[in-house]
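Support reply, case 0932

Customer input (verbatim):
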Amino acid sequence: MSIKTLFDTELKVINIGLKSFKETLDQCKVASVQVDWRPPATMDEHWQEVMEHHKETIDAANREVCNRVLSSRPVLIGLDVALVAIPGMKKNLILHAGPPVAWENMCGPMRGGIIAALKYEGLARDDREAEHLAASGEIEYAPCHEHAAVGPMAGIVSASMPVFIVKNENRGNVAYCTMNEGLGKVLRYGAFSAAVIEKLQWMEKVLYPTLKAAVADLGRIDLKNIIAQALHMGDEVHNRNRAATSLFYRQITPAIIRTSENKKEMIEVLEFINGNDHFFLNLSMAASKVSLDAGRDVPGSSVVIAMARNGTEFGVQLSGAGDRWFTGAAPVPDALYFPGFTRADANPDIGDSAITETNGLGGFAIAASPAIVQFVGGTAADAVNYTLQMYEITVAENNMYRIPYLNFRGTPTGIDVRQVIAKNLCPFIDTGVAHKEAGVGQIGAGVLSAPPEPFKNAYIGLAKTFAPGGSGPF
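Our regenerated output:
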């Protein structure tokens, strides 16, 4: 085409610059497409050379990790109290979400959850006494992840709390999680009122023994099968668990009826589960945890086996880097807020629930659940695009968890920190939002991209394991 005739024909533009350029073209009704491209994240060339030099070793290790994760068979086998079930649990130990954090650095909702736990345990008579005890040094804190457990939002687990026991039937490892309280003013969102403690006590005295007897009656419940079905029914089993909860309800109800001796309590339990669309969330987290833990400690692997947030920092762990946490500041989600609240009220992202995304669910499977993106005014096309992007930073497609809209393509699974850096594309997560002040509770729900810093640090951490004096295989 000659320059003389260029402006005599209809323009069709391919924009590789800022998206605002395309927005101007759209306003002028000029046909255009936006190229979704980002320059690689900034990384020291030395570490890039180290990783490239060991590419074949890393690729082989990643295949082994993905084989272990994808062949996992998570099943619910029982319930017990945390002090009995969770390895290393003590009466003065409280587990929390995310990477390690000291009391003085904890965010408001995590502090609120701890205050609630201390009152629930009978270790403090009121809020002031609980806060004093929490800061005294007499209470120990540790990440749930370091005790084979996971917890949503603040992730608080104390000694007397009942927990689900989930086993990977393929490799024998076990994971634990508490029971879901429902939405609103609950412990996991940092609330600690008398009503919060009363509900926790009811869960311990009524819900727990009822479910324990029912699960014992059934012997096992196949969680992987429930998750696979739920993806075909509109869930992504992180922020939407309605279908999964319904499928669980269908399996557990006959056993509850068979084993319950108290009709009033039986009805209370059935109504509680039926009225709590998020009841399955904790089970999807434990199923993801037990699957990913099977892929831990494979030397040289660049696959992420945990993403978790404590409301202050966002942390990741790599299979090939042992139990080390690589961290960066936790971002505030883009969210739809409840009436009366704004982004200024929101705490930075918090919770172990990103273990679902790490396992190819949640935001990675959002194409199966486009209703979720409505939290921030998104469309069904946005949901599909988010999932398609995640294939760019993963090394496998799930053999069981499939997305109908994508012709039943397996969900993107096995986050490769190398690809996160090379594509400058971070994992996409959907999440709930807690108020930044202790005691308020949930104020909304939304989505976010993980911050790049933890992945940059993890990339360097893995590269160092290949260097002389490193802790890796060479």
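We compared this against your earlier run and they match. Two observations from our side: The domain at 45-69+296-465 is CATH 3.90.1700.10 (v583 fold). DSSP finds 15 helices and 18 strands in the chain. Please reopen the case if you see a mismatch on your end.
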